[in-house]
Amino acid sequence: VLFDCLTDRADVYGNKPAVIGEIRTLTFKQLLDEAKSLAVWLKGCGVRAGDVLLLGIPPSPEFYVVFHAAAALGIITLPVLPPGKIPETVISAHAKIAAGNAVFLRQVRSQCPSVQLELPWDRNRGLAVPKQAEELTRPQVLRDEKIIGVSSSGTTGEPTIYYRSVELLVRRAEFRVRSLGITADDVLLSARP
What we know:
Layout: H1 2-13, E1 17-20, E2 25-27, H2 28-44, E3 52-56, H3 61-73, E4 76-79, H4 88-91, E5 97-100, H5 102-111, E6 117-122, E7 126-127, H6 131-137, E8 147-152, E9 160-165, H7 166-180
Parallel strand pairs: 3-4, 3-5, 5-6
Antiparallel strand pairs: 1-2, 6-7, 8-9
Helix pairs in contact: 1-2, 1-3, 2-3, 2-6
């Protein structure tokens, strides 16, 4: 029901601000899109209705993205604010998912053995949306789409060429701009010429 309210608001208010944070602002449409993407990823990870999420992110755009993604799937959300000591009642809830900063997630690992999935968050970088979220939400490549090769050595150091549709690359860039709060004033630094 709560997620349906967001969907209705996004239809009515689309590009108007929904959440205004210290670092970035999300419109209703952006909030809905990011919540949907995260919900798809969570579902792909086996999260189901009734699972419990420990939400250790202070009120911010990312708090609401996680909150609404959880609502879309029927996940029970337990905000742990401020994200300090985790109360025994929260530990006994047998949470499956935790979202928060590195200190909070380290604390969750030591006190909540039932947690199987972590969503890292940083005040400056926002939610570290797992790469799989982009893969699960990307459209299928059609035969008549323009395809280009992208060379990457990633963390392995071994050059690999990935073939991607131009549309997919544009969607990924747009997704990263939204999720990282990149603006026209940001500068991309590269070690390559």
